[in-house]
Amino acid sequence: MIDKKLYSEIRKINNIMRNISHNSLSQDLNLSHAQINILEIINSNPGIIQKEIASIINIKASSMTELVSKLKNKDLIYRKKDDTDLRIIRLFITDKGKEELKNITKIRDENEKSIFKSLNEDEKENLYSLLKKINESL
């Protein structure tokens, strides 16, 4: 019986955390989670191609094209043809995109503080250890 209760509470927390994250990031920055993921991937992998990103986040090429176009239209990324193979288009983050990532980090930090404010440091450490143990067993 306790397994069902634990599972239920973890699902509730997951949904709440997802909603908090989605609402704050979408409202404050006007970016979807997929756009944020793509921005972070491009920042970590300058010059990556769309096909590689689509593979990483498991979305269709057509959806990828739309998401990348929206980021480009917001001036958060830019496209550049490959120096050796002009058929390949590489993606890079703009300075504005880097600033947006700083805002994302700030909002996430605020969300984390809000979500875990009811726990003291020992409780946070214990929770982390237990969740990590579960995660490693999956």
TrEMBL record:
Keyword annotations: DNA-binding, Transcription, Transcription regulation
Gene Ontology MF terms in the entry: DNA binding
Domain of life of the native organism: Bacteria
Heme in keyword set: no
InterPro entries: HTH_MarR-typ (IPR000835), WH-like_DNA-bd_sf (IPR036388), WH_DNA-bd_sf (IPR036390)
Domain HTH marR-type: from-to ranges: 3-136
One Pfam family hit: MarR
Protein name stated in the entry: DNA-binding MarR family transcriptional regulator
Species assigned in the record: Peptoniphilus stercorisuis
